[in-house]
């Protein structure tokens, strides 16, 4: 009984302390302050994504507090807590992994600070913990990669897979979508699969190990361009020709990836759009104004083969 009273009192006190504004003090100076907890700087995609967010915040007149978690969930949680303490108006973040967010997001909710997920999703039953999720359909991306292989392979095909960060939505979903798409072709087999953490060095290292342990690799499926580019280095060092002796499929379509595709060292890329900044700032303004926003905003994207990459490269912005 006493415990209940104490808890109730604490709740009242907390409300009193936070009642002076919803979240930060947007109403006071008319300026919106956003706390953005970025995953890290692991890939070309991420660099383009960070720039898009920083540029479009400036353009939209939104004050941005930005942090880089170096691919560690604990760092992201710390950043979110510090944004809550600083009483920002809104928090946006790209969760490095899917699970383990409920506690910190409940803290944001109690402080009346709305949260927007961008790029990566969380795995939680409580959808009241965020206003909307803006980003790609990663299962669909994996499917597009698998469908291309199913259409462009003949006979027994051994695939090695370079997975993204363990537990991250794009790693889980790109694997699932790809497996789904190749199901109808039992000749295509994933003979080895490991994480390269979405980095070039990770992709290179894992590919070196695969080349030693697997004598008969036909295809690399890398969950992003950077790991594919790392694999290219490993394949060349092993005296083989990437894109010819071993075919390579990746996801992202950043400039370095598109260049390798146009040069014939990659065979197919599924696009994943990193330029989420303008839509994020738009959604932010709506959320702060109390307008309804859809709970899911999916980014549109395409695919590129080698000829399409040659045509698209001159105008590629990132
Ligand atoms: O594909 C990869 C990055 O979450 C969609 O993260 C993003 C992924 C992207 O490191 O290059």
N-to-C series of helices and strands? HHEHEHEHEEHEHEHEHEHEHEEH
Largest sheet: 6 strands, parallel
CATH class of the largest domain: Alpha Beta
Uncertain parts? 1-22
Distance linking N and C termini:
60 Å
Number of strands: 12
Bound molecules: beta-D-fucofuranose
CATH topology of the largest domain: Rossmann fold
Strand order of the largest sheet: 2-1-3-4-5-11
Structural class: alpha/beta
What is the averaged pLDDT score? Answer: 93
Radius of gyration computed on alpha carbons: 22 Å
What general outline do the C-alpha atoms trace? elongated
Helix content: 40-55%
Write the layout of secondary structure elements.
Blueprint: H1 2-18, H2 26-29, E1 33-38, H3 44-60, E2 63-68, H4 73-85, E3 90-93, H5 102-110, E4 115-118, E5 132-135, H6 138-152, E6 157-163, H7 169-182, E7 188-195, H8 200-213, E8 219-222, H9 225-237, E9 247-252, H10 255-262, E10 268-271, H11 277-288, E11 296-298, E12 303-304, H12 306-312
Helix pairs in contact: 3-11, 4-5, 6-7, 8-9, 10-12
The structure holds beta-D-fucofuranose.
Question: How is this structure best summarized?
Answer:
This protein is of the alpha/beta class and 318 residues long. It has helices at 2-18, 26-29, 44-60, 73-85, 102-110, 138-152, 169-182, 200-213, 225-237, 255-262, 277-288, 306-312; strands spanning 33-38, 63-68, 90-93, 115-118, 132-135, 157-163, 188-195, 219-222, 247-252, 268-271, 296-298, 303-304.
């Amino acid at each position: 009984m006493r415990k209940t009273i104490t808890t109730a009192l604490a709740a009242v006190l907390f409300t009193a302390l936070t009642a002076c504004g919803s979240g930060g003090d947007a109403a006071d100076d008319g300026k919106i302050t956003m706390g953005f907890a970025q995953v890290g700087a692991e890939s070309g995609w991420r660099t383009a994504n960070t720039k898009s967010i920083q540029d479009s915040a400036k353009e939209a007149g939104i004050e941005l507090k930005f942090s880089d978690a170096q691919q560690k969930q604990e760092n992201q949680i710390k950043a979110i807590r510090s944004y809550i303490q600083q009483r920002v108006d809104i928090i946006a973040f790209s969760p490095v992994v899917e699970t383990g967010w409920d506690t910190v997001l409940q803290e944001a909710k109690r402080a009346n600070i709305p949260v927007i997920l961008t790029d990566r999703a969380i795995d939680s039953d409580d959808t009241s913990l965020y206003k909307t999720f803006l980003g790609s359909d990663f299962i669909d991306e994996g499917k597009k990669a698998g469908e291309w292989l199913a259409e462009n392979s003949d006979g027994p095909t051994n695939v090695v897979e370079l997975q993204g960060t363990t537990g991250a939505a794009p790693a889980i979903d790109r694997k699932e979508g790809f497996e789904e798409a190749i199901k109808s072709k039992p000749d295509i087999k994933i003979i080895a699969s490991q994480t390269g953490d979405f980095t070039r060095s990770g992709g290179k290292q894992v590919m070196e190990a695969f080349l030693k342990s697997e004598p008969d690799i036909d295809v690399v499926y890398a969950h992003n361009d950077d790991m594919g580019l790392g694999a290219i280095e490993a394949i060349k060092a092993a005296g083989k020709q990437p894109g010819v002796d071993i075919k390579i499929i990746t996801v992202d379509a950043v400039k370095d990836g598109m260049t390798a595709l146009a040069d014939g060292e990659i065979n197919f890329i599924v696009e994943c759009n990193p330029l989420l900044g303008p839509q994020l700032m738009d959604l932010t303004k709506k959320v702060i104004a109390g307008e309804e926003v859809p709970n899911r905003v999916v980014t549109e994207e395409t695919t590129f083969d080698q000829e399409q990459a040659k045509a698209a490269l001159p105008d590629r912005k990132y």
